[in-house]
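## retry 2 of 3
previous attempt timed out at serialization; input unchanged, resubmitting
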Amino acid sequence: MSITPSHILCRMPFLATLLILVSLASGCASVPYHYGKDDEYIPPVTAPEKLPIEEGRPNKFIDTLGWIFGIPSKIILWDRRVDNHEISKETRKAIEDYLDSNELDTVKVRLNQYAPGNEFSRTVNNASVGAGWKYTVGMLSWLFYTILPQRVIGGDNYNPFSNTINLYSDVSAIAVHEGAHAKDFAGREYKGTYAAAYVFIPFFPLYAEAISSNDAISYLRADGTATEQKEGYKILYPAYGTYVGASMAPFLNSPWNVLAPVLGAIPGHIIGRVKASEIDQDGYNMVDTKKPE
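## retry succeeded, writing output
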Protein backbone atom coordinates (compact mmCIF):
# COMPACT_ATOMS: atom_id res chain seq x y z
CA MET A 1 0.00 0.00 0.00
CA SER A 2 1.47 3.37 -1.03
CA ILE A 3 1.78 6.28 1.38
CA THR A 4 -0.10 9.32 0.14
CA PRO A 5 -0.21 12.87 1.52
CA SER A 6 -3.68 12.13 2.91
CA HIS A 7 -2.30 9.20 4.90
CA ILE A 8 0.40 11.41 6.37
CA LEU A 9 -2.13 14.13 7.17
CA CYS A 10 -4.36 11.64 8.96
CA ARG A 11 -1.48 10.74 11.24
CA MET A 12 -0.45 14.30 12.00
CA PRO A 13 -2.21 14.59 15.38
CA PHE A 14 -0.35 11.55 16.67
CA LEU A 15 3.01 12.51 15.16
CA ALA A 16 2.77 16.18 16.13
CA THR A 17 1.75 15.28 19.67
CA LEU A 18 4.59 12.82 19.97
CA LEU A 19 7.16 15.39 18.87
CA ILE A 20 5.80 18.14 21.11
CA LEU A 21 5.48 15.84 24.11
CA VAL A 22 9.05 14.63 23.66
CA SER A 23 10.11 18.27 23.72
CA LEU A 24 7.92 18.91 26.78
CA ALA A 25 9.34 15.84 28.54
CA SER A 26 12.92 16.95 28.02
CA GLY A 27 12.51 19.96 30.29
CA CYS A 28 9.32 19.36 32.21
CA ALA A 29 10.45 19.50 35.82
CA SER A 30 12.41 22.56 36.91
CA VAL A 31 14.60 21.74 39.90
CA PRO A 32 14.64 23.51 42.27
CA TYR A 33 11.07 24.71 41.86
CA HIS A 34 10.54 28.47 41.70
CA TYR A 35 7.84 29.50 44.14
CA GLY A 36 5.95 32.61 43.06
CA LYS A 37 6.10 35.64 45.34
CA ASP A 38 3.53 38.40 45.69
CA ASP A 39 6.06 41.11 44.80
CA GLU A 40 6.86 39.31 41.52
CA TYR A 41 3.31 39.55 40.24
CA ILE A 42 2.30 42.53 38.18
CA PRO A 43 -0.35 44.69 39.94
CA PRO A 44 -3.07 45.58 40.21
CA VAL A 45 -4.65 42.38 41.48
CA THR A 46 -8.17 42.28 42.76
CA ALA A 47 -9.77 40.69 45.79
CA PRO A 48 -13.26 42.27 45.96
CA GLU A 49 -14.38 39.90 48.72
CA LYS A 50 -12.94 37.40 51.14
CA LEU A 51 -11.49 34.47 49.27
CA PRO A 52 -12.17 31.18 50.99
CA ILE A 53 -12.41 28.07 48.88
CA GLU A 54 -16.11 27.58 48.23
CA GLU A 55 -17.94 24.37 47.41
CA GLY A 56 -21.27 23.94 45.68
CA ARG A 57 -24.11 22.37 47.60
CA PRO A 58 -24.45 18.66 46.69
CA ASN A 59 -27.27 17.91 44.27
CA LYS A 60 -27.61 14.24 43.38
CA PHE A 61 -29.52 14.79 40.12
CA ILE A 62 -27.26 17.56 38.77
CA ASP A 63 -24.05 15.87 39.86
CA THR A 64 -25.11 12.54 38.38
CA LEU A 65 -25.93 14.32 35.13
CA GLY A 66 -22.54 15.99 35.27
CA TRP A 67 -20.83 12.65 35.85
CA ILE A 68 -22.54 11.29 32.73
CA PHE A 69 -21.53 14.32 30.65
CA GLY A 70 -17.97 13.72 31.85
CA ILE A 71 -17.74 10.16 30.55
CA PRO A 72 -15.83 11.13 27.35
CA SER A 73 -13.22 13.01 29.42
CA LYS A 74 -12.94 10.08 31.82
CA ILE A 75 -12.25 7.76 28.90
CA ILE A 76 -9.81 10.07 27.07
CA LEU A 77 -7.77 10.72 30.21
CA TRP A 78 -8.42 7.20 31.51
CA ASP A 79 -9.34 8.35 35.03
CA ARG A 80 -12.79 7.96 36.56
CA ARG A 81 -12.16 10.94 38.87
CA VAL A 82 -12.19 13.39 35.94
CA ASP A 83 -15.40 15.48 35.96
CA ASN A 84 -16.83 13.36 38.77
CA HIS A 85 -18.24 16.50 40.50
CA GLU A 86 -17.22 15.28 43.95
CA ILE A 87 -14.08 16.95 45.28
CA SER A 88 -12.22 15.22 48.11
CA LYS A 89 -10.41 16.87 51.02
CA GLU A 90 -7.10 15.80 49.44
CA THR A 91 -7.76 17.67 46.19
CA ARG A 92 -9.04 20.69 48.10
CA LYS A 93 -5.86 20.73 50.17
CA ALA A 94 -3.71 20.34 47.04
CA ILE A 95 -5.00 23.55 45.45
CA GLU A 96 -5.03 25.36 48.79
CA ASP A 97 -1.38 24.46 49.43
CA TYR A 98 -0.34 25.39 45.89
CA LEU A 99 -1.93 28.85 46.06
CA ASP A 100 -0.50 29.45 49.52
CA SER A 101 3.00 28.32 48.51
CA ASN A 102 2.95 30.68 45.52
CA GLU A 103 1.35 33.60 47.40
CA LEU A 104 -1.69 33.70 45.12
CA ASP A 105 -4.11 35.02 47.72
CA THR A 106 -6.43 36.87 45.34
CA VAL A 107 -7.49 33.79 43.39
CA LYS A 108 -11.00 32.49 43.99
CA VAL A 109 -11.52 28.70 43.98
CA ARG A 110 -14.91 27.13 43.32
CA LEU A 111 -15.32 23.40 43.88
CA ASN A 112 -18.23 22.12 41.81
CA GLN A 113 -20.02 25.42 42.28
CA TYR A 114 -22.25 27.46 39.97
CA ALA A 115 -22.22 31.14 40.93
CA PRO A 116 -22.98 33.40 37.93
CA GLY A 117 -23.85 36.41 40.10
CA ASN A 118 -20.56 36.44 41.96
CA GLU A 119 -18.61 35.67 38.78
CA PHE A 120 -20.19 38.71 37.12
CA SER A 121 -19.17 40.85 40.10
CA ARG A 122 -15.62 39.53 40.11
CA THR A 123 -15.28 40.13 36.37
CA VAL A 124 -16.54 43.70 36.57
CA ASN A 125 -14.36 44.51 39.59
CA ASN A 126 -11.21 42.87 38.27
CA ALA A 127 -8.94 45.88 37.74
CA SER A 128 -6.08 43.69 36.53
CA VAL A 129 -7.81 43.22 33.16
CA GLY A 130 -8.32 46.20 30.85
CA ALA A 131 -11.89 47.38 30.29
CA GLY A 132 -11.70 46.71 26.55
CA TRP A 133 -11.09 43.00 27.06
CA LYS A 134 -13.13 42.72 30.26
CA TYR A 135 -16.37 43.99 28.74
CA THR A 136 -16.01 42.04 25.49
CA VAL A 137 -14.26 38.68 25.80
CA GLY A 138 -14.68 38.71 29.57
CA MET A 139 -18.44 39.20 29.38
CA LEU A 140 -18.68 36.60 26.63
CA SER A 141 -16.83 34.17 28.90
CA TRP A 142 -19.27 34.97 31.71
CA LEU A 143 -22.22 34.45 29.35
CA PHE A 144 -20.99 30.99 28.37
CA TYR A 145 -20.42 30.17 32.04
CA THR A 146 -24.00 31.23 32.78
CA ILE A 147 -25.93 29.55 29.98
CA LEU A 148 -23.71 26.44 29.74
CA PRO A 149 -23.10 25.66 33.42
CA GLN A 150 -19.94 23.64 33.91
CA ARG A 151 -21.56 22.28 37.06
CA VAL A 152 -23.27 20.03 34.50
CA ILE A 153 -20.99 19.88 31.45
CA GLY A 154 -17.72 19.88 33.41
CA GLY A 155 -14.35 21.17 32.30
CA ASP A 156 -11.85 22.31 34.98
CA ASN A 157 -10.56 25.76 34.17
CA TYR A 158 -9.05 29.05 35.28
CA ASN A 159 -10.95 32.17 34.25
CA PRO A 160 -8.51 35.12 34.09
CA PHE A 161 -11.32 37.66 33.69
CA SER A 162 -12.75 36.84 37.12
CA ASN A 163 -9.49 35.42 38.51
CA THR A 164 -11.31 32.22 39.46
CA ILE A 165 -10.42 28.54 39.41
CA ASN A 166 -13.35 26.19 38.74
CA LEU A 167 -12.79 22.54 39.64
CA TYR A 168 -15.08 19.60 38.85
CA SER A 169 -12.51 16.77 38.93
CA ASP A 170 -11.17 15.04 42.00
CA VAL A 171 -7.58 14.95 40.73
CA SER A 172 -4.90 16.85 42.64
CA ALA A 173 -2.67 17.23 39.56
CA ILE A 174 -5.50 18.89 37.63
CA ALA A 175 -6.17 21.26 40.53
CA VAL A 176 -2.49 22.23 40.69
CA HIS A 177 -2.41 22.68 36.92
CA GLU A 178 -5.27 25.20 37.10
CA GLY A 179 -3.45 26.95 39.92
CA ALA A 180 -0.41 27.14 37.64
CA HIS A 181 -2.54 28.99 35.07
CA ALA A 182 -3.41 31.54 37.76
CA LYS A 183 0.30 31.90 38.56
CA ASP A 184 1.14 32.38 34.89
CA PHE A 185 -1.47 35.11 34.46
CA ALA A 186 -0.44 36.83 37.71
CA GLY A 187 2.94 37.59 36.16
CA ARG A 188 1.52 38.96 32.90
CA GLU A 189 1.29 42.71 32.50
CA TYR A 190 -1.36 42.55 29.76
CA LYS A 191 -3.60 39.88 31.21
CA GLY A 192 -6.58 40.59 28.94
CA THR A 193 -4.47 40.42 25.79
CA TYR A 194 -2.88 37.18 26.97
CA ALA A 195 -6.32 35.69 27.68
CA ALA A 196 -7.66 36.81 24.29
CA ALA A 197 -4.64 35.31 22.54
CA TYR A 198 -5.46 31.99 24.19
CA VAL A 199 -8.98 32.15 22.76
CA PHE A 200 -8.35 33.53 19.28
CA ILE A 201 -4.80 32.68 18.16
CA PRO A 202 -4.29 29.15 16.78
CA PHE A 203 -1.69 27.06 18.61
CA PHE A 204 -1.29 29.71 21.34
CA PRO A 205 -2.98 27.41 23.90
CA LEU A 206 -0.10 24.97 23.41
CA TYR A 207 2.28 27.63 24.72
CA ALA A 208 0.14 28.55 27.74
CA GLU A 209 -0.70 24.93 28.56
CA ALA A 210 2.96 23.90 28.38
CA ILE A 211 3.88 26.62 30.88
CA SER A 212 1.19 25.50 33.32
CA SER A 213 1.92 21.79 32.89
CA ASN A 214 5.63 22.37 33.43
CA ASP A 215 4.96 24.42 36.56
CA ALA A 216 2.46 21.89 37.95
CA ILE A 217 4.77 18.91 37.46
CA SER A 218 7.75 20.84 38.83
CA TYR A 219 5.71 21.76 41.92
CA LEU A 220 4.63 18.14 42.42
CA ARG A 221 8.25 17.02 42.00
CA ALA A 222 9.26 19.47 44.73
CA ASP A 223 6.38 19.09 47.20
CA GLY A 224 4.29 16.12 46.11
CA THR A 225 4.34 12.51 47.21
CA ALA A 226 5.48 9.77 44.83
CA THR A 227 1.82 9.02 44.10
CA GLU A 228 1.09 12.66 43.29
CA GLN A 229 4.13 12.90 41.04
CA LYS A 230 3.13 9.81 39.10
CA GLU A 231 -0.42 11.14 38.86
CA GLY A 232 0.90 14.40 37.44
CA TYR A 233 2.70 12.66 34.59
CA LYS A 234 -0.14 10.24 33.88
CA ILE A 235 -2.87 12.88 33.71
CA LEU A 236 -1.17 16.07 32.50
CA TYR A 237 0.71 14.57 29.56
CA PRO A 238 -2.36 13.08 27.84
CA ALA A 239 -4.32 16.22 28.74
CA TYR A 240 -1.70 18.29 26.94
CA GLY A 241 -1.91 15.86 24.05
CA THR A 242 -5.61 16.65 23.64
CA TYR A 243 -4.70 20.32 23.08
CA VAL A 244 -2.17 19.35 20.43
CA GLY A 245 -4.76 17.19 18.70
CA ALA A 246 -7.40 19.92 18.91
CA SER A 247 -4.94 22.41 17.38
CA MET A 248 -4.44 20.07 14.43
CA ALA A 249 -8.17 19.35 13.96
CA PRO A 250 -8.90 22.30 11.60
CA PHE A 251 -6.38 20.88 9.12
CA LEU A 252 -7.91 17.40 9.03
CA ASN A 253 -10.80 15.86 7.16
CA SER A 254 -13.70 14.09 8.81
CA PRO A 255 -13.69 11.94 10.92
CA TRP A 256 -10.08 12.67 11.88
CA ASN A 257 -10.89 16.24 12.92
CA VAL A 258 -13.35 14.94 15.51
CA LEU A 259 -10.97 12.25 16.71
CA ALA A 260 -7.90 14.51 16.80
CA PRO A 261 -7.99 15.23 20.57
CA VAL A 262 -8.35 11.51 21.28
CA LEU A 263 -5.45 10.65 18.97
CA GLY A 264 -3.41 13.40 20.56
CA ALA A 265 -3.94 11.91 24.00
CA ILE A 266 -2.46 8.52 23.01
CA PRO A 267 1.24 9.53 22.89
CA GLY A 268 0.58 11.60 26.02
CA HIS A 269 -0.48 8.45 27.84
CA ILE A 270 2.55 6.57 26.57
CA ILE A 271 5.14 9.20 27.50
CA GLY A 272 3.37 10.11 30.75
CA ARG A 273 3.50 6.52 31.93
CA VAL A 274 7.14 6.20 30.96
CA LYS A 275 7.93 9.32 33.00
CA ALA A 276 5.83 8.04 35.92
CA SER A 277 7.73 4.74 35.90
CA GLU A 278 10.93 6.69 36.61
CA ILE A 279 9.62 7.80 40.02
CA ASP A 280 10.46 5.40 42.85
CA GLN A 281 8.44 4.87 46.04
CA ASP A 282 10.25 7.71 47.79
CA GLY A 283 9.48 10.23 45.06
CA TYR A 284 12.99 10.15 43.63
CA ASN A 285 13.39 10.29 39.86
CA MET A 286 15.68 7.38 39.13
CA VAL A 287 17.09 8.97 35.97
CA ASP A 288 18.01 12.21 37.74
CA THR A 289 21.55 12.65 39.00
CA LYS A 290 20.31 14.09 42.30
CA LYS A 291 17.19 14.15 44.38
CA PRO A 292 14.98 17.23 43.85
CA GLU A 293 15.42 19.89 46.50
